[in-house]
């Protein structure tokens, strides 16, 4: 089943009734470890995904499953506390459904964060990476199916999915805060199994610096509907096969907890400068 424009409108209408005249400008999809920023939103109205017509729940650990509307660093935001993943059983259209709803609500900018495996052997676990571009091959696009021209064109340009001006904002924010920020390419893998060492070697040859199971579908959808995008990756672990040790969810969550402070300071500083 594909969504029609009317589905998105119904979701947006429901949310509008809950948030009144408030108009969010920046949508934020917070991955592992940064969901707590949603709790810092001022004058917040929280809408559980389950209340919103046509919305799906989010089942991944550490993901709360609600939209928080309010002000953060002086910016009117809509924070997704928890995202949907393809590995949870959702189609790519479902995974990126909320992006279009937030676009209808007035968001013109999307900030995405995630945790991912580090493919670049010159870097280390715990580093932060500004996403400059992404690779999502082999599986279908979230835009597959009839195009909805209310959102964008059939064959959208993807040459600057991660907005250059926002990348510059992130560079200067990181510099001013004294936070080291790597820059690189995020390669999407569907999961939920972590990659094999051979897949990680493949990713490296393909030009990737990080491998992860989220973000890329939502960013394609955001680009299609003309949103500016800023993306950050917490390199929570060295990708499979680089170190002689198995990968675990716990390692990812521990790294997210350890980097929570610098990661959130950086994201908030960027938000302030938007
Ligand atoms: N691979 C894929 N997704 C991830 C990883 C990884 O190594 N670490 C955190 N999310």
UniProtKB/TrEMBL annotation:
Domain Nucleoside phosphorylase: 26-272
NCBIfam families for this protein: PNPH (TIGR01700), PNPH-PUNA-XAPA (TIGR01697), PRK08202.1 (NF006054)
Keywords: Glycosyltransferase, Transferase
Protein known as: Purine nucleoside phosphorylase
Catalytic activity of the protein: a purine 2'-deoxy-D-ribonucleoside + phosphate = a purine nucleobase + 2-deoxy-alpha-D-ribose 1-phosphate
Pathway membership, UniProt: Purine metabolism; purine nucleoside salvage
Keyword Acetylation recorded: no
Any one GO molecular-function label of the UniProt entry: purine-nucleoside phosphorylase activity
Biological role stated in the UniProt entry: The purine nucleoside phosphorylases catalyze the phosphorolytic breakdown of the N-glycosidic bond in the beta-(deoxy)ribonucleoside molecules, with the formation of the corresponding free purine bases and pentose-1-phosphate. Cleaves guanosine, inosine, 2'-deoxyguanosine and 2'-deoxyinosine.
Any single GO CC term annotated in Swiss-Prot or TrEMBL for this entry: cytoplasm
Family affiliation: Belongs to the PNP/MTAP phosphorylase family.
EC category: transferase
Enzyme Commission numbers on file: 2.4.2.1
Pfam families xrefs: PNP_UDP_1
The organism's place on the tree of life at top rank: Bacteria
Binding site for a purine D-ribonucleoside: 195, 237
Gene Ontology BP terms: nucleoside metabolic process
Organism lineage: Bacteria, Bacillati, Bacillota, Clostridia, Eubacteriales
Binding site for phosphate: 32, 63, 83-85, 115, 214
